[in-house]
Amino acid sequence: MNITATSKNGTTIRLTDERWTHIAEEHGELGGMRAEVLETISKPERILAGGEGELLALREVKTGKYLVVVYRELGDDGFIITAFLTRRIRSLAKRKQLWP
C-alpha cells in the first residue's frame, strides 16, 4: 500500500511499504512516526538541496532534534528515499536552501 503526501511544489510524494520497512529497520526510532514523515513533506520548516537532485525536507520534532525526509520529485510524481532524526543541523545548514 502506498500512502502519499503533497510537497510544497504540489507534487504527490509516495511512501511505499518497501521504503517504510527500510526506514523503520534502519532508523528504529522512526518506527511509529510514519505520519510525521509524511507531514514533514507537506509541512516542512525548510527544504534543502541534496547532492544528487534529491530534496531534504526538515522539521523540528523536539527541541534541537530534526526529522529529515529525503525525497525525489519527477514531474508530477515523487517518492521518499529515506528519513532520519538528527541534532546535527549545522552540517545540513551548509546545503543550499530551496524553501522558504
Query: What percent of the residues sit in helical stretches (DSSP H or I)?
Result: 10-25%
Number of helical segments? 3
| Largest sheet, spatial ordering of strands | 1-2-6-5-4-3-7
Class derived from helix and strand content? alpha+beta
The string of secondary-structure elements, in order, is EEHHEEEEHE
3D structure, described in words:
The protein has one domain. The model has no long low-confidence stretch (mean pLDDT 96). By secondary structure, it is of the alpha+beta class. The longest helix has 10 residues, at 17-26. A hairpin with a 5-residue loop joins strand 3 (46-49) and strand 4 (55-62). The N and C termini lie far apart (31 Å). The protein has helices spanning 17-26, 34-42, 89-93, and strands at 3-6, 12-15, 46-49, 55-62, 65-74, 77-86, 97-99. It has a 7-stranded mixed β-sheet.
